[in-house]
């Protein structure tokens, strides 16, 4: 947690006459490593090896080294120091340097005492976006390792992350992401924005003249301001011994919740506090009660909802799934929590979940997790609540997520397509604030009569996007037969065409590679006279799943309405899969997808004699499962994971 809890390098200066030998530096490194002071440990191990401190550090140590680079070390000592140096850099999340040192350990004649080296090396490669080599190293480790199975499980998870990242890189980016300009990102680590007045409260580990060191504090910066952010004064007797951050201010700007942390017996202790804005000042921080801050456990990263009635936060207190979990508390009129509830196993995993954001308008939780397949490190996920349960968390994908840590999502209060996040993707040490925007495209085309190719007016066009938060778009063509609509995030999806006297048609759009134009032209679509049966829009499924998504249920609700309004119609339900996996497995999966749709229709009053279903496995893809060069095509596979419906007239067969 180096970005959240800035490492305090030294408590006091060491005497300059200190005996400087490889053994001395090794002992100093071991001592720093034991108390999780990984940055300091890396320095000492590097000096013991005869190297200078890593160039990326930018920090000076409190005394100068006269250690000679050519001092001889035994092979065993060299490998030990290399491994410890690699471990220190990795745990401080300096994956670039760590990877080089792990590679040196693997190149040594005997590294049998360090059996996890290849695992950590593979993870460093993944963090540095070297996915193919990372998969090779992680697979080699997993197949050869004979120790604790949890490390093999970790290797499997990281291999999944590598494959997921490769899929993401192959898709057109769904966002514009750029580092936020202005004074917010000046100096050291900056993260965790919260709207306040005409700007933001945020956390920064800038240099403190008073403390003569980098200290985490809460700052305010006006939007588009060019002057240095102002430190928020939080009066407290022991303020100098504590660090402050991750602010969340209520909509009225009267209450601010934030994390306070300090060191106790070589451990970091964190808790959530409240300060109120009175008489143009922020009050002395008040510790929240035990509903949030349970004795002996850590709570942090609060987010207060727009109405000021609920507080979401991360905590490792009892009642969770393991590690840090996301919790929610109801707040009393005085701002103190009345209760706390763990958000459950759909949201939380045995690994860490952190940095919650809750959108009350759309009942949407956005948070960071290490427990689901992603790009690696902390990835940002979203889930929605229908009033009874949470949807499965969805990874927001690349480039919103990176192979480093991505946390502290914040949606812009004035623009629903704009957001902010904090990430160390451009650094070996520290968070910066990034600004994001959902990409938008114009999709244009024309509809004509197939027989005479005359423009068709009055065609109802429905665009159903694979972008989860975009609602279906419906327009009607004019006398020219032309249409144009806006697609957000991804253009991949389906366009349905319907007109009285003509058979309906569905056109599939698959986005591939980099899209350079803002307008996507769909070549002329023609409609012909009706057939016995016709298609309506499909529903999609998550990978290896037959569970109906909320969007799929909306489509099925529409189908239920059509069937109830037209009692003579029957429906054919056909299940399909993408091309991954064996034929037998996919056949069964396609049947389960069809069955889940049939069950929904039955549960909503459609009788069994009006429904027929069949699974087709992977035999009838709508789009290619792979690119021409044989590489995986994630967008194509997503479209193939579907159930199709055909409405049948009386007496007609499928």
Binned, the helix content reads 10-25%
Q: Name the shape in a single word.
A: globular
DSSP E strands, number: 34
Poorly predicted ranges: 1-19, 54-70
Number of helices: 10
Q: Which range does the strand content fall in?
A: 25-35%
How would you sum up this structure, described in words?
The protein is an alpha+beta fold. It is built from ten helices and 34 strands. Strands 8, 9, 10, 11 and 12 form a five-stranded antiparallel beta sheet that branches. α1 runs antiparallel to α2 and α4 packs antiparallel against α5. The N terminus is likely disordered.
What's the topology here?
Layout: H1 22-34, H2 38-48, H3 75-91, H4 95-107, H5 117-127, H6 131-144, H7 149-170, E1 175-179, E2 190-196, E3 199-204, E4 207-208, E5 213-214, E6 217-222, E7 230-231, E8 243-249, E9 255-264, E10 267-278, E11 281-282, E12 286-287, E13 299-304, E14 310-315, E15 325-330, E16 341-342, E17 353-359, E18 364-369, E19 379-384, E20 394-395, E21 406-411, E22 418-423, E23 432-438, E24 440-449, E25 460-465, E26 473-476, E27 482-488, E28 493-498, E29 505-509, E30 519-527, E31 533-540, H8 550-565, E32 570-575, H9 583-603, E33 611-615, H10 634-640, E34 642-648
Helix pairs in contact: 1-2, 2-3, 3-4, 4-5, 5-6, 5-7, 6-7
């Amino acid at each position: 947690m180096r970005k959240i809890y800035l490492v305090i390098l030294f408590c006091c200066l060491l005497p300059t006459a200190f005996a400087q030998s490889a053994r001395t530096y090794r002992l100093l490194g071991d001592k720093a490593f034991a108390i999780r002071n990984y940055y300091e440990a890396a320095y000492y191990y590097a000096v013991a090896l005869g190297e200078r401190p890593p160039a990326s550090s930018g920090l000076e140590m409190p005394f100068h080294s006269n250690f000679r680079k050519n001092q001889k070390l035994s092979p065993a000592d060299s490998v030990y120091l290399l491994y410890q140096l690699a471990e220190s850099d990795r745990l401080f999340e300096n994956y670039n340097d760590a990877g080089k040192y792990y590679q040196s350990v693997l190149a040594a004649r005997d590294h049998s005492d360090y059996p996890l080296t290849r695992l950590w090396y593979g993870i460093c490669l993944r963090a540095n976006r070297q996915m193919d080599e990372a998969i090779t190293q992680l697979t080699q480790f997993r197949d050869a390792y004979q120790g604790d199975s949890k490390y093999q499980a970790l290797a499997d998870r990281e291999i999944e992350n590598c494959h997921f990242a490769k899929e993401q890189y192959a898709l057109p980016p769904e966002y514009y992401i750029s580092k936020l300009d202005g004074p917010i990102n000046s100096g050291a680590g900056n993260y965790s924005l919260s709207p306040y007045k005409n700007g933001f409260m945020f956390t920064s580990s800038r240099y403190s003249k008073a403390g003569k060191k980098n200290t985490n504090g809460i700052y305010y910066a006006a939007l588009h301001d060019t002057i240095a952010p102002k430190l928020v004064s939080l009066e407290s007797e022991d303020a100098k011994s504590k660090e402050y951050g991750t602010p969340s201010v209520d909509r009225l700007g009267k209450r601010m919740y934030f994390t306070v942390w300090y060191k106790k017996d070589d451990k970091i202790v964190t808790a959530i506090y409240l300060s109120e804005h009175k008489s143009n000042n922020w009050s002395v921080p008040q510790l929240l009660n035990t509903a949030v801050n349970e004795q002996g456990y850590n709570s942090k990263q609060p987010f207060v909802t727009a109405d000021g009635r609920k507080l979401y936060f991360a905590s490792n207190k009892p009642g969770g799934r393991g590690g840090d979990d996301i919790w929610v508390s109801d707040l009393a009129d005085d701002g103190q929590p009345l209760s706390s509830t763990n958000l459950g196993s759909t949201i939380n995993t045995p690994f860490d979940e952190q940095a919650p954001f809750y959108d009350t308008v759309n009942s949407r939780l956005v948070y960071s997790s290490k427990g689901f397949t992603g790009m690696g490190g902390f990835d940002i996920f979203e889930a929605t609540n229908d009033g009874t349960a949470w949807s499965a968390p969805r990874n927001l994908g690349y480039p919103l997520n990176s192979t480093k840590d991505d946390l502290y999502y914040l949606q812009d209060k004035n623009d629903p397509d704009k957001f902010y996040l904090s990430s160390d993707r451009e650094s070996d040490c520290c968070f910066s604030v990034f600004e994001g925007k959902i990409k938008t495209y114009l999709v244009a085309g024309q509809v004509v009569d197939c027989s005479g190719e005359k423009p068709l007016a009055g065609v109802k066009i429905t665009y159903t996007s694979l972008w989860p938060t975009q609602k279906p778009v419906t327009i009607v063509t004019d006398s020219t037969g032309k249409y144009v609509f806006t697609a957000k995030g991804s253009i991949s999806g389906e366009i349905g065409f319907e007109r009285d006297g003509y058979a309906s048609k569905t056109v599939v759009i698959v986005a591939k590679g980099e899209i350079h134009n803002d307008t996507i032209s769909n070549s002329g679509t023609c409609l012909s006279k009706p057939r016995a049966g016709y298609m309506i829009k499909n529903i999609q499924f998550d990978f290896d799943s037959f569970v109906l998504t909320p969007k799929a249920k909306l489509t099925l609700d529409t189908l239920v309405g059509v069937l109830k309004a037209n009692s003579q119609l029957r429906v054919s339900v056909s299940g399909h899969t993408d091309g991954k996996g064996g034929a037998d497995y996919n056949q069964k999966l396609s049947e389960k997808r069809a069955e889940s749709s049939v069950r929904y229709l039955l549960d909503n009053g459609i009788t069994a004699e009006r429904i027929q279903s069949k699974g087709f496995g992977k035999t009838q893809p709508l789009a290619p499962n792979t690119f021409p060069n044989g590489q995986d095509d994630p967008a194509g596979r997503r479209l193939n994971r579907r159930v199709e419906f055909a409405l049948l007239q009386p007496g007609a067969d499928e």
